[in-house]
Specification:
The protein has 263 residues and is mostly helical. The chain has two domains: 123 residues, Endonuclease III, domain 1 (Orthogonal Bundle); 105 residues, Helix-hairpin-Helix base-excision DNA repair enzymes (C-terminal) (Endonuclease Iii, domain 2, Orthogonal Bundle), CATH 1.10.1670.10. The chain has a two-stranded antiparallel ribbon. Helix 3 packs antiparallel against helix 7. The longest helix has 18 residues.
Amino acid sequence: MLPPSLFTLESLGSGRPVGFTLLSMPETKPAKRSAKKIVSKPAAKAPSQKTAALGSTTAAKTRRMGGDLAPERIAAILRALDEAYPNAVCALDHKTPWELLVATILSAQCTDVRVNMVTPELFRRFPTTGFFRNKAKSIKGAAQAVVERFGGQIPRTLAELITVPGAARKTANVVLGVSYGLAEGVVVDTHVFRITRRLNLAKGDTPEKVEQELMRVLPRDKWIDFSHQVIHHGRQVCVARNPKCNVCNLEQLCHSKDKTWHS
């Protein structure tokens, strides 16, 4: 849903940072889930003795079975993520589905921390800079589409939401999952892409292929939380270079060739 004010963007063709001009829009009621407090960086909990033992037993069993996608192994991975990140939620600050849509569009090739520094000013109508032509055009197009085709309401289906400029599958999955609690897909960002391939949960060479693989092996009721948890895990532990395997509670379930430590 759109906030009381919506902005358009000028100087789109210049290629330079652009500012925002605000238009008055009808006020709409925020979604119920949007009032939930955002916990941007839940600390990763060290693996408990129970989880370590379960991981060791499950890892040995799945090796004997020869299947990384064995239900027992996937269940063990999900338990470990639940234990390490019980409160993991979307790291983008927002109050309404519209604000989340804009923030997610802006997060492309940019950190959530940086986006969270900019959006409060943007959403309070203050001029801002740093948005180049592609993102500016996406946000302007998204605003027009939501007003003209969806009556000022953010769509609640994947099929509709991906028709909004700037809202590809990842963005649409973020908005549907966080704002409406609807699991129509799995969010696959750079962290989810990297870690699920390290864990051999997926082998696809594109985010779209990885998402389809994850949708086949993960319980649907875990699709939303799984992505948030893996994203936090990727930022804190399973980083791209020199992953911190010595403090990872998935270590005994992981057979990645680039592990930096083995128990």
